[in-house]
Amino acid sequence: MDTLLHFVNLVLHIDKFLGDFIHVYGAWVYAVLFLIVFSETGLVVLPFLPGDSLLFIGGAFCATGQLHLGLLIVLLVVAAITGNTVNYLIGRAIGPRVFNSHIPFLERFLDRSALQKTHNFYEKHGGKTIVLARFIPVVRTFAPFVAGASSMTVSRFQFFNVVGALLWVLLLVLLGYFFGNIPFIRQYLNVIVLVGIGAAVVPVLLGALWKMLRKDGAKAGHH
Known about the structure:
Layout: H1 2-12, H2 14-25, H3 28-42, H4 52-63, H5 69-99, H6 104-109, H7 112-133, H8 139-149, H9 154-179, H10 183-187, H11 189-222
Helix pairs in contact: 1-2, 2-4, 3-5, 4-9, 5-8, 5-9, 7-8, 7-9
């Protein structure tokens, strides 16, 4: 039991204990890293798994020779693409059924027109959403599910899914490879990650706020 708890603790905090994990499990670390990235992006119930910091730290261990850079990048890109694909397919299978369940309790709280609006949004802005969501924890877990639930076109989703996965994995792993072993960065990694998240989220929020204000202003002008 203690061994199992230790293993679970390592998985949930592998971004902090990756060195110990490599020492204990050796090459199995590649399979574990693949599963973590796949689960975080593919299973909507697991948004708490490490993502950005895990890729960064993985790159740092590649720089020390403990992991192979090319192999890690390929595995994580495949994990990110297949994870998002599974999440999209789950959303595509479950979403419309939930909105068309004809269950009074659900009908009261769900608006079918909202699903259509979401579909229209994803057809128009879904590409940017899928790519940007890669860099925002929790959001990247839910974005492909919502894209599937709103029936975003498969080909359109997959194109931006692949682009987003490549950008996310390459950027963070290579940043870790070149800068991850600098003592200052290792010490303040969590702060740096939060700043990076803020840099990704704030422009999106400001853009959404600007559109809302313009829309309200247009409505006021018509009255």
